[in-house]
Write a structure and sequence with these properties.
It is a single chain. This protein is mostly helical. It has one domain: Jann2411-like fold, CATH 1.10.3300.10. Helices cover 43% and strands 10% of the residues. The strands form three sheets. Strands 1-2 form a two-stranded antiparallel sheet. A hairpin with a 5-residue loop joins β3 and β4. α3 packs across α4 and α4 packs across α5. The longest helix has 23 residues. It starts with 7 loop residues before the first strand and ends with a helix. It comes from Asanoa siamensis. Pfam families: ABATE, zf-CGNR. This is Zinc finger CGNR domain-containing protein. InterPro entries: ABATE, ABATE_dom_sf, Znf_CGNR.
Length: 198
């Protein structure tokens, strides 16, 4: 995984899209879909979708072993566990034991192994499997939950936005999933309220 480069474009089922940087690749992954009423945001419908998400920048993991249906199931299980654990931490709740167990199980296999090519570029040591990418994502989540940013998990401050992120900014004052989305909407509502009061 490339250090310091996170974020993906999210599509709204009602139309439109926006760039959302969750602050960590594992948290970006947690926003690829979901369960229950979040199923309308699903973007990983088949194994090829998972392969494409892993291959896209900034992750750039081109699997050399085809992604299986079992890999996709494991990926969705990990995604849900990351989502639950991130929201637990953002709300100041104890971490869900089931989510912790799922993250630990996903982290157990060997992660992606980097190597240097002859021309000085970084690549992943083949064979590259989806389970290795999932292990790397799970390990990143473990590092986040147990490291210096453990207290920086935030849910978007908008009343109806469940997006969660880790705030790595120096002041730790990030409130919105994206300024151009919920931040601007909040500013517009505040402006209208001030004008109505006047």
């Amino acid at each position: 995984m490339r250090v310091g480069a996170t974020g993906r474009t999210l599509d709204d089922p009602k139309g439109g899209s926006f760039f959302f940087d969750a602050g960590a690749t594992c948290l970006d992954f947690a926003h690829t879909g979901g369960e229950g009423h979040y199923a309308v945001f699903e973007s990983l419908h088949e194994p090829a979708d998972l392969a494409a998400w892993l291959a896209a920048e900034p992750l750039g993991v081109h699997v050399t072993v085809p992604v299986s249906t079992a890999d996709l199931t494991a990926a969705k299980r990990l995604r849900q566990a990351i989502w639950v654990a991130a929201h637990d931490r953002a709300a100041g709740r104890p971490l869900s034991p089931a989510a912790v167990e799922t993250v630990n199980r996903a982290a157990a296999p060997a992660p992606l192994l980097p190597h240097l090519t002859a021309d000085g570029a970084a690549a992943w040591t083949p064979p590259v499997r989806a389970t290795q990418a999932l292990s790397s994502l799970a390990r990143e989540m473990i590092d986040l939950l147990s490291g210096p940013l453990a207290g920086r998990f935030r849910e978007c401050a908008s009343d109806n936005c469940p997006l969660v992120f880790v705030d790595s900014s120096r002041p730790g004052a990030r409130r919105w999933c994206a300024m151009e989305r919920c931040g601007n909407r909040a500013k517009l509502r505040a402006l209208r309220a001030r004008r109505a009061a006047d």
